[in-house]
Design a protein that fits this description.
With 204 residues, this protein is an alpha/beta fold. The protein has a domain of 114 residues: Rossmann fold (3-Layer(aba) Sandwich). Helix content is 34%, strand content 26%. The chain has a 5-stranded mixed beta sheet with strand order 2-1-3-4-5, covered by helices on one side. Helix 3 crosses helix 5. The N terminus is likely disordered.
Length: 204
């Protein structure tokens, strides 16, 4: 081919062969998807996705077996209270309650009903529009908001011990259902985990 015989094209080809790998090597590494249950390889002792999924699955299985729920003539109505984080970790506390709720709604065939009290202002505004017939409704007029039967809340606790370059963390994730009328705790369960990892900067 004429292009191969042209010395200028040979020089260009050599330059491209040298520069392209260098450019590729400077590019940012691509992210890699891993299974959500894959243990963390970062070497720390903080809560990870595997802990979250294990806790949510255990709490959902345990809660649905309590007699006040499993044998209830009508599905009990549950609302959230805050989760108390007593660890030194920055944790999205609501993700635990949301995960438990999702599992129960998906897998219990309507055994429990969750009330969306976090959206109470929007719900009340919508009810007002329906009462004034600004918008239509598919529910009987005059139906009041459902009351809460049980409150679901939890607490996250941790004990940390630092020895040399290592850090040992024991974490306890506990949740409970409290009767909204009597304040009786009708159910409580906990999941415990201990992790050994490297010492963090904040331990210095």
């Amino acid at each position: 081919m004429t292009l191969v015989k042209d010395g200028r094209w040979r020089v260009v080809g050599v330059l491209l062969a040298i520069t392209l790998p260098a450019v590729a090597g400077c590019a940012a590494p691509m992210s890699q998807r891993v299974d959500v249950d894959t243990p963390s390889t970062l070497g720390d002792t903080t809560t990870d996705s595997q802990d979250l999924r294990t806790v949510a699955q255990r709490m959902a299985r345990s809660m649905i077996q309590v007699q006040q729920i499993s044998a209830a003539p009508q599905p009990p109505r549950i609302a959230f209270l805050d989760v108390n984080n007593r660890t030194n970790q920055i944790i999205d506390k609501e993700i635990f309650l949301n995960s438990i709720r999702t599992l129960l709604i998906q897998n219990t065939g309507g055994k429990v009903v969750f009330l969306d009290r976090a959206r109470i202002a929007a719900i009340m505004a919508e009810r007002d529009l329906k009462r004034r017939q600004v918008v239509g409704t598919s529910t009987p007029e005059g139906k009041i908001l459902s009351g809460v039967d049980y409150f679901l809340t939890g607490e996250l606790n941790a004990l940390d011990k630092v020895e040399g370059p290592n850090r040992l963390t024991y974490t306890r994730y506990s949740f409970r259902l409290t009767d909204a009328e009597s304040s009786d705790i009708i159910w409580e369960d906990a999941y415990e985990v201990k992790k050994l990892g490297r010492r963090g900067v904040h331990d210095q």
